[in-house]
């Protein structure tokens, strides 16, 4: 009897059907224990598996073995199970293969949508890479503008548009998901595909456009801030090759169009220049910066191609600075009322000039007081724009006549300051004024209807009082006096004052020493140097109206 030492049951290598005969008991051991029981073997069968032993231990059990077969796979077993059938091998499932179809279309209207009338583009080269960025292959669209990429396993892929001398990547949109660098990455699986096919359109363009706006660069930094207004009414010419090259197109900016205020379309690659001009001479080119591509010579020159025009669009905005000018003039006593400063007509001191913005809520931006040297007043460093000038004599000794120009009778003149009417950097506004005569009075309730103002006769407010030129019948001033009193300043001439009660409760009473108005509510006079103390008084006496207000009854036919 031979002795076989064993510490553990060895894994059994199986390469096919097991043909080992049955044994009564096989007991694995992890610890070396001498066996005291002899287990007889009933049948000696050839075996394709051997049980290797690493540690020799005394054993009283003899296990005959006829053949030793090397083992390639260890299968630990604590119980020997006879087997006479072979174990079938596992079969592999075929991999899911998918397809990508790329359609290159000519996005002629630059909207990122593939439309029926937009043709396809052949000869476009795209590079396919996997999710790790490893290049797989290059593909070129056929004459139909399509390329099919077959036999792709599920995964992450990227398509990269290669540079092209004729076409460039168009704007993004519903049918163009390539990024600004011409790259589009996607997942390819049974969810993203339809019938195992993923369609990938790409919009291309073979013409270019220019987009931008003109803005007032308030903080002079070359960048367009949200509080900086866009500018309308300046001109931008597009010329070929140089600022003096052939004119291609021109526009006038419109602030309501936003980034389409400066817009040129359907341009072929080439060299161009944009030229700025301002027909009103309000603005000049500001500091170059991120939003101002124009230089101080009023031009922006560039090469238009796929490299400079991302997605077919070149940005070209214009930052502008508002020019500044001065306003000056002489204020003088216009003796002959011809609006010209003639010999012997003196400059008037202490006349106030207020410069305000011309807007719904005017704001005084500067104030000057005239002197007796030429020019008698001057404003400097005034930005271009709409303004109003108000000139007046605080003492009312001098006023503007009805014939004055450019100031109106109330001393106002509104204008737009720009470079057109400027000479040597200044806009000239002379102020011809004339000596004034005061017309004043009071409206009262003539209680005893005698045309004389008694102490008991109260003032009567709410009357409409109007000053007119008697010769031209032109209204020069009109007020509604809450207190009943009024005051007008007139130059030499013929005038009338007309009064009426808007409520129709009163009518003009009898004429007398206290009432200078006739029964039509009119008082006419001549203002000249013979007026005592240059003051004319005209009071108005009123009495209750005899009219009774009634109701209008309308008879309706039944």
Structure, briefly:
With 558 residues, the chain is mostly beta strands. The chain is 0% helix and 37% strand. Strands 29, 32, 34, 36 and 37 form a five-stranded mixed β-sheet that branches.
Biggest sheet character: 5 strands, mixed
Please tell me the overall pLDDT. Answer: 84
CATH architecture of the largest domain: Sandwich
> Segments where pLDDT lies below 50 for 5+ residues?
1-81, 549-558
Helix fraction bin: under 10%
Question: How much of the polypeptide forms β-strand, as a percent range?
Answer: 35-45%
Distance between the termini: 144 Å
Broad structural category = mainly beta
Please write the CATH class name of the largest domain: Mainly Beta
CATH topology of the largest domain: Immunoglobulin-like
State the CATH superfamily name of the largest domain. Immunoglobulins
How would you sum up this structure, described in words?
The protein is elongated, with a radius of gyration of 52 Å. It has five domains: 1-79, no CATH class; 98-205, Immunoglobulin-like (Sandwich); 208-322, Immunoglobulin-like, CATH 2.60.40; 328-435, Sandwich (Immunoglobulin-like); 437-544, Immunoglobulins (Immunoglobulin-like, Sandwich). The chain is mainly β and 558 residues long. Strands 29, 32, 34, 36 and 37 form a five-stranded mixed sheet that branches. Strands 4-1-8-6 form a four-stranded mixed sheet, with no helix packed on it. Strands 3-2-5-7 form a four-stranded antiparallel sheet, with no helix packed on it. β30 (463-469) and β31 (475-481) form a beta hairpin. The model is unreliable at 1-81 and 549-558 (pLDDT under 50). It contains no helices and 37 strands.
């Amino acid at each position: 009897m031979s002795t076989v030492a064993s510490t553990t049951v060895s894994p059994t290598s199986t390469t096919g059907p097991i043909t080992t005969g049955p044994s009564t008991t096989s007991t694995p051991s992890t610890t070396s224990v001498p066996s005291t029981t002899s287990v007889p073997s009933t049948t000696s069968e050839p075996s394709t598996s051997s049980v290797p032993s690493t540690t020799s231990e005394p054993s009283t059990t003899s296990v005959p073995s006829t053949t030793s077969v090397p083992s390639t796979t260890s299968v630990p077993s604590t119980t020997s199970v006879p087997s006479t059938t072979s174990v079938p091998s596992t079969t592999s499932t075929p991999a899911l293969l998918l397809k990508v179809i790329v359609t290159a279309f000519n996005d002629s209207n630059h909207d990122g949508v593939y439309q029926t009338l937009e043709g396809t583009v052949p000869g476009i080269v795209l590079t396919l890479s996997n999710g790790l960025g490893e290049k797989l292959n290059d593909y070129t669209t056929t004459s139909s503008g399509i390329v099919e990429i077959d036999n792709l396993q599920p995964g992450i892929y990227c398509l990269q548009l290669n540079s092209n001398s004729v076409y460039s990547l168009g704007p993004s949109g519903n049918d163009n998901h390539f990024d600004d660098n011409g790259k589009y990455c996607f997942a390819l699986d049974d969810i993203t595909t339809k019938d195992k096919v993923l369609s990938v359109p790409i919009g291309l363009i073979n013409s270019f456009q220019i987009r931008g706006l003109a803005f007032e660069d308030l903080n002079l930094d070359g960048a367009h801030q949200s509080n900086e207004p866009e500018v309308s009414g300046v001109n931008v010419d597009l010329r070929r090759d140089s600022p003096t090259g052939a004119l291609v197109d021109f526009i006038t900016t419109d602030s309501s169009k936003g980034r389409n205020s400066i817009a040129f379309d359907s341009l072929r690659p080439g060299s161009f220049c944009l030229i700025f001009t301002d027909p009103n001479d309000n603005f000049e080119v500001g500091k170059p910066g991120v939003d101002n591509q124009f230089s101080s010579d009023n031009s922006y020159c560039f090469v238009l191609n796929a490299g400079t025009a991302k997605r077919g669009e070149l940005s070209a905005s214009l930052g502008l600075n508002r020019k500044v000018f001065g306003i000056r003039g002489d204020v003088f006593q216009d003796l002959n009322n011809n609006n010209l400063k003639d010999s012997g007509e003196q400059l008037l001191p202490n006349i106030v000039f207020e410069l305000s913005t011309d807007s719904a809520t005017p704001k005084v931006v500067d104030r000057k007081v005239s002197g007796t040297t030429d020019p008698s007043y001057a404003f400097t460093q005034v930005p271009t724009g709409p303004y109003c000038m108000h000139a007046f004599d605080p003492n009312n000794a001098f006023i503007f006549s009805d014939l004055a120009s450019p100031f109106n009778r109330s001393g106002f003149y509104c204008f737009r300051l720009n470079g057109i009417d400027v000479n040597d950097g200044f806009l000239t506004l002379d102020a011809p004024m004339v000596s004034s005569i005061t017309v004043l009075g009071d409206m009262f309730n003539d209680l005893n209807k005698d045309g004389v103002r008694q102490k008991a006769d109260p003032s009567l407010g709410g009357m409409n009082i109007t000053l007119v030129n008697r010769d031209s019948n032109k209204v020069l001033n009109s007020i509604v006096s809450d207190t009943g009193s009024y005051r007008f300043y007139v130059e030499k001439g013929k005038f009338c004052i007309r009064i009426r009660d808007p409520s129709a409760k009163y009518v003009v009473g009898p004429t007398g020493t206290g009432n200078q108005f006739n029964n039509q509510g009119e008082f006419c006079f001549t203002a000249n140097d013979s007026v005592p103390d240059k003051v004319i008084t005209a009071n108005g006496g009123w009495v209750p109206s005899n009219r009774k207000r009634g109701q209008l009854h309308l008879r309706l036919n039944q």
